[in-house]
Amino acid sequence: MTEGSKSAAETLRRGHPRHRDEWGIEFSRIVAFSDGVFAIAITLLALAIDVPQNLPPDTTVAEVLEGQTGDILAYAISFAVVGKLWLSHHRFFSAVERFDSVLMGLNILYLAWIALVPVTSEVLGDYGEDPAGVITYAAIMVAVSLTFQAQIVHAYRSGLIRPELRDLERHVVGPANFLIAIVFLLSIPVALVSPVVATLMWPVIFFTGRPLADRLAALRS
Amino acid sequence: MTEGSKSAAETLRRGHPRHRDEWGIEFSRIVAFSDGVFAIAITLLALAIDVPQNLPPDTTVAEVLEGQTGDILAYAISFAVVGKLWLSHHRFFSAVERFDSVLMGLNILYLAWIALVPVTSEVLGDYGEDPAGVITYAAIMVAVSLTFQAQIVHAYRSGLIRPELRDLERHVVGPANFLIAIVFLLSIPVALVSPVVATLMWPVIFFTGRPLADRLAALRS
Amino acid sequence: MTEGSKSAAETLRRGHPRHRDEWGIEFSRIVAFSDGVFAIAITLLALAIDVPQNLPPDTTVAEVLEGQTGDILAYAISFAVVGKLWLSHHRFFSAVERFDSVLMGLNILYLAWIALVPVTSEVLGDYGEDPAGVITYAAIMVAVSLTFQAQIVHAYRSGLIRPELRDLERHVVGPANFLIAIVFLLSIPVALVSPVVATLMWPVIFFTGRPLADRLAALRS
Amino acid sequence: MTEGSKSAAETLRRGHPRHRDEWGIEFSRIVAFSDGVFAIAITLLALAIDVPQNLPPDTTVAEVLEGQTGDILAYAISFAVVGKLWLSHHRFFSAVERFDSVLMGLNILYLAWIALVPVTSEVLGDYGEDPAGVITYAAIMVAVSLTFQAQIVHAYRSGLIRPELRDLERHVVGPANFLIAIVFLLSIPVALVSPVVATLMWPVIFFTGRPLADRLAALRS
């Protein structure tokens, strides 16, 4: 084995962080793979909406939709949530300049939660008025945001983020994501009392990003 | 926080429009994500065609296809419609040179309608002779084209379109898309009287683009 | 409307052929979209294999597989066929240097047949011993290859193929693809007599490409 | 036919290995197609988790999850295994600098096994306590790793790997992958005695890569 091959071998074996330009193809494959899982999961959400069978002729739109209200609401919630998660993932990975094997492992774990969303959304659609359906859904979302938190923290600590964005990821994106975990976590005990109120807590996550970012930016300027 | 990181933070937080070259990876990810949703939705359309079970041995092709006429017609219509929508989306995004958070949000809403098409197409296949099936399908298409309209108008007003294509998008692509919304909207009251006639109105959308474009080009030259 | 915008408008409206470098993003989107449909269709093939339910405890592998032989054979055939079609599509589009709206329309029609393969493969798995299942499958494959033929012929006639590959596409790739259409077409009457013999004709398509290419190359050198 | 077209024709026909830069689009399409199949297969894994229907109101989380333990465990195992396979595939193809038709054929065969994993995972979820379910799953994994082994060996022998990584692929990646085949192969006879013990053998594959690589690196330095 020559010197050259040994050092290349070292790099591959040890999983030393790689620069996104130097290993452009692999980095873009990780990003493309993640996007693929997101795109498939978000499109499969709609399959949880049942098409009622054997309705009589001259059925009305109301009859077609009847009994699907839960499924349609679950679709709307999940599409919005997965869309938001994808945007966050998209922003985070555009700030990452290198990756290592831990980040890749965490990303695969993260995608394992994302791929579960269509099934969890089906549970929410079918059992959204029971504490069980709401808690199952919220628990997956807590897992998603905590895994994303681990990605942000690891990338920050291991210096995998572009220098000019490090403070931002650590002090703005991180806390904003952490708040999502907290909202879903708090909704779990609430669901035991009222599943509807628990569900109404979730839209808060769509308002957390900006105010927090503003406050933090104000504090630090 | 340094000056550099603060200005980068500002940009990310406020969602100032970003140039497609400067932020190449993200722009291509949005486009790839949209294409992914389109590709999955268009391929899932075929799953709405039921394979009849437990037919007797020496069954004929006619017996295999029997009862699937509605499903096959719905597949043909939906593949053509989604294909056309994808081409429009493809043309529109090749004219966009920057994006902002509103355009991204509208695009996710747009994709939420697209991902609903396979289920809506199944409804059309099963209830295409009832007003309900046709109206459900047409309503989704009105929602799709109005959301696309909002994307075009917003991109035009916020100056996100390449300068040399702005007039085109505003005065040709926009009206052509708006006509699609009108065709599907008009088919809704018609479906109450005759679902078949309503369905026969839809192919008009495949002829709207060119004549309108020709007329507008003639007016302005 | 300025001169510049008018000429850009003209180009977009008339669908003049575009060079792959000049309009790189769109060309790569068409290719990526096609690959997406292929990848989804080929992966969905496996979903046609039923998992038997409610087998007794201590069931054997034989019992799990029992009754799935048809499904598994259909999967093997379809994966090989779709894989071959993808390779042909891949080679063809790497020879295309420009595209126009006719080629895009034909490509969408082509993808509409490809997206039907998972359902057709399910029919073959369930009714592969009946003429009906085999004929349905063969008919879709005839449609696929004739649509691909139309793409090759149109691209050749409209000068959309890289100059150095025009003769090749016209005189080698075209005839090789045409032979696939013929093999599947001939298997249709044969299936009326013996579905098994008809199915055994199909592997011929995996041997057509090379000998034909060799003979043609020999003739012309 | 000109000289130029004849030589281009030769190259296409004979499938001479192509350099990844020279034929960049095709190489990236193969990689993207493979990633697409991986992303779809890994996301479809979750669909094997059944959502229980018709549970009574005020059902508990325990009741929703009841009977799904096998499905959820199978999902966790399969996501980890497919994730690891994707990482290996990803590393291998980043070391490949050229491809030929044999490598492409082997890759399609490899993807045919990968696309089977969702169905096989469903079998494991439903029959994971029977030898049959465990053996079916292990057999597919043996097929996956042997096909990957064939890709590594072929690429090495035909000089398709970047020179500086040849020894690594041959002496580190190859043996590490071979060990995966052996682990799953050995679990088959064990499953006949105890399916649970057989399943517990599988996590070994997550520890094989590094120690082996370390030992080999130590031997050769």
Describe the protein in words.
The structure is a homotetramer of 221-residue chains. Chain A is mainly α. Chain A has one domain (18-220). Helix content of chain A is 77%, strand content 2%. Chain A is built from nine helices and two strands. Chain A has helices at 3-14, 24-44, 61-65, 69-95, 101-127, 131-157, 166-193, 195-201, 205-220; strands at residues 18-19, 98-99. Chain A has a two-stranded antiparallel ribbon. In chain A, helix 6 runs antiparallel to helix 7 (166-193). The longest helix of chain A has 28 residues, at 166-193. The first copy, chain A, is elongated, with a radius of gyration of 21 Å. Chain A starts with a helix and ends with a helix. Chains in contact: A-B, A-D, B-C, C-D. Chains C and D meet through helix 2, helix 3, helix 4, helix 7 and helix 9 of C and helix 1, helix 2, helix 5 and helix 6 of D.
Strand-helix topology:
The structure is a homotetramer of 221-residue chains.
Chain A: H1 3-14, E1 18-19, H2 24-44, H3 61-65, H4 69-95, E2 98-99, H5 101-127, H6 131-157, H7 166-193, H8 195-201, H9 205-220
Antiparallel strand pairs in A: 1-2
Helix pairs in contact in A: 2-4, 2-5, 4-5, 5-6, 6-7, 7-8, 7-9
Contiguous uncertain segments of 5+ residues of chain A: 1-16
Number of continuous helical runs of chain A: 9
Mean pLDDT of chain A: 82
- Share of helix among residues of chain A? over 70%
State the domain count of chain A.
1
> SSE string of chain A, helix = H, strand = E?
HEHHHEHHHHH
Strand content of chain A: under 5%
Largest sheet of chain A: 2 strands, antiparallel
How far is it from the N-terminal to the C-terminal residue of chain A, by CA? 54 Å
Strand order of the largest sheet of chain A: 1-2
